[in-house]
Amino acid sequence: MATRLDPFVDLDRLLGSVMSSTRSAASSMPMDLFRSGDHYVLNLDLPGVDPGSIDVNVEDSTLTIRAQRSTHADSDVQWLAKERPSGTYARQMTLGRGLALDAITATYTDGVLSLSIPVAEDAKPRRIEVSHGSTPTAIGRSAEQPA
């Protein structure tokens, strides 16, 4: 039986595993976004993240979320499996108009970061009362002018 030798297959496999673990560490911040009444709720999964490392800020209309997950720091550890990504996570999103950006609140509970983003008062729908007069007037004539 003949075996074909391709030295690039193993190199490609190694680079693919390194790149996929780096890519998943950078983008591993899944989120849900929904509207509930007069505010939006943004939930992000950040299990194992140190709560003190979470940074949420808004500049202009860009919301930026950063968090850090560190690994076990003992130098005498011999890893048998290391599948959980570590490092800095970051996610940015552009927020639309009509939101009260100065009133955003954030909580971190059980590995989930929850942001409440209220709708601005001037962007909320409101009912406009329609009044109706007792007598209609002709266009171009005032009520005092005789017809």
TrEMBL record:
The SHSP domain, residue ranges: 22-133
Gene3D superfamilies: 2.60.40.790
SUPFAM superfamilies linked: HSP20-like chaperones
Region (Disordered): 126-147
Protein name: Hsp20/alpha crystallin family protein
Pfam families recorded: HSP20
Family matches, as CDD domains: ACD_sHsps-like
Family: Belongs to the small heat shock protein (HSP20) family.
InterPro entries according to UniProt: A-crystallin/Hsp20_dom, HSP20-like_chaperone, Small_HSP
PROSITE patterns assigned: SHSP
